[in-house]
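User: Teach me something about this protein's shape.
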Amino acid sequence: MAPSSKKPGGETATTVEVDGRRLRLTNLDKVLYPVTGFTKGQVIDYYARIGPIMLPHLHDRPVTMVRLPDGITGERFFEKRCPGHRPQWLDTVPLDADSDITACSLESVPALVWTANLAALELHTPQARAADPWRPSAIVFDLDPGPGSDLTDCARVALELHDLLDQLRMRAVAKTSGSKGLHLSVGIKPSVDAETTKGFALALGKVLESRDPKRVTVTMAKEQRGGRVFVDWSQNDRHKTTVCAYSLRATDVPGVSTPVSWDELHDLADGDDPDEFAFTPADVLDRVEALGDLYADSLSGDQDLPDLG
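Assistant: First, the predicted structure itself:
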């Protein structure tokens, strides 16, 4: 690592080598999460260390970055177009089949470190790969608790949804959103379009809503979500993205969208403290070392979508 240098404007810079790539990192001591004092350097370190597990979930997908150059109390913006000042070795892909925007495709740890240096705290991806943007390789169910409900309610709905999918002989995996809710993902063969997967997610959500309309809703209107868990089927739209597994979140305390086991969700539904599911970057690194990638099956791509007709 090269020594730090300081420009007249106050920016400090350090040159590092990551997997054979030289990167210029700036302002490593800058605090991006004031509540905990979590710095830009710690953000970069997390992404460098989680990279080998996270990269398969980013592979061949256009990445939308949520950037917060001044930390979570400052301005935040979505950046879909890969910056023109990117390194020549950083891959790009079309944002969408009908878009002229070129997005970053993060295929290496140096690429992750480079985006972290931009204070891209959150990384969001679509359900389809760039190689076949018309056909998603997964279905996502975004379980979002409305006012008066919480993560425990989401866990109970997730377990009911898991049972439904099991009846259809479909495997699913789960992760925390890193904020309030849960995400379930079902890896599928890329053989149908997003309208079909969106309709499938809505159909299963309606089954759950019909069983317990006081606790579950598929209605988009926010004013109708009080006390209910919203099964957000619309996240399967071709133009929408979902926060990637292992991504940091721009929350007061640095949270992570963290894969969890079904046993853990059973414990949560049975009364475990929801605060225990607010995983920090250190927690996630420890979990990956002990448990591996609990979200790997979302990449399986070996399941056919059943006909519900």
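Now, about its shape. The chain has a mean pLDDT of 94. The longest strand covers residues 138-145. If you'd like, I can walk through any region in more detail.
User: That's plenty for now, thanks!
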